[in-house]
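About this split. The held-out portion is used to measure sequence recovery: a designer receives only the structure tokens and must propose an amino acid at every position. Recovery is the fraction of positions where the proposal matches the reference. Here is one held-out target exactly as it appears in the evaluation file.
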């Protein structure tokens, strides 16, 4: 067994009482969580991240001069498609009927970045955090793919959950949500 790694949660747990991991059975085998008994409720998740690019790449994206086409539109569509297929990409995710997915890609000249924010919504038995995170991830990868001929040093960074609403575990708002 691997040694215990300290976690920020450690000081909130009773001594030697590890947190319950819902995707593991009693033998430690990965499993899909049974959500059948949960009540349907509206669930919303917002995720964000960004792609840092050089000044010339930023200008090409802004001015629509990337040879592969409109970077922001293609990345938005890719993020939407990815959100809808999250359960095919993440092994233990439930297929979720999304009622809404919105992806905003905003050019940030000061940081020379494409900021990405995805909002996913459903009414169901489980949350949409993974769908929002997948949307941001694939949108960022698409920005990279569209502009890689101009800038191989682009960096994808900061992909994280910004907000979650609904469900048994309640609401969450990241400290850096804006």
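Reference sequence for scoring:
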């Amino acid at each position: 067994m691997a040694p215990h790694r300290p976690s920020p949660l450690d000081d909130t747990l009773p001594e030697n009482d590890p947190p319950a991991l819902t995707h593991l059975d009693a033998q430690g085998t990965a499993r899909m969580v049974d959500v059948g008994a949960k009540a349907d409720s509206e669930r919303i998740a917002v995720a964000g991240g960004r792609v840092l690019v050089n000044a010339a790449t930023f200008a090409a994206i802004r001015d629509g001069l990337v040879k592969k086409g409109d970077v922001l539109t293609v990345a938005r569509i890719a993020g939407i498609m990815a959100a809808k297929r999250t359960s095919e990409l993440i092994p233990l995710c439930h297929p979720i009927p999304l009622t809404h997915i919105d992806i905003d890609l905003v050019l940030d000249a000061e940081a020379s970045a494409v900021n990405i924010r995805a909002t996913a919504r459903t009414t169901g038995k489980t949350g949409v955090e993974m769908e929002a995170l997948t949307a941001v991830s694939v949108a960022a990868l698409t920005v990279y793919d569209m502009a890689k001929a101009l800038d191989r040093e682009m960096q994808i960074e900061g992909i994280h959950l910004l907000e979650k609403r609904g469900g048994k575990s309640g609401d969450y708002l990241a400290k850096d949500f804006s």
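Annotator remark: The helical segments are 55-63, 71-84, 86-89, 129-147.
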